[in-house]
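From the pipeline queue, job 12 of 40. The input is one protein chain; the requested action is below.

Action: predict structure.
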Amino acid sequence: MTGRKVLFLVLLLLGTAWGTFHLKYEVVQLENHARALERQIVASVDEIRTLEADLALRTHPDRMVAVAPKLDMVPVYVTSLASVGDMPDHARIAYADRVLAVLLPSGAEVPTRMKPLVLGGIAR
């Protein structure tokens, strides 16, 4: 009986040693993977900072002024903007007279009529 107990304890000791070795090996692999991910994060942060600096340089107003003539860009003046009086009155637009054909997913066409949306007495 004592021999069986000793054999059982020796096997238990060997199994525990193998399990500990295997666990240590897995931890080392996970630590290496974590270090690789940390290096990748640092590289990504550096790349983001570089791209942000490049964007800031490209969109800097002084650079835009220098590049604008090459792109045929001209400044916007107040006189070139439309006034509110030039806009059509949406309340007077008769959408109900227009018939539009809507194509359904089945392939059929359905005629639809539109009318202005009125919220609080104001046509939108």
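Job complete. The helical segments are 2-58, 61-67.
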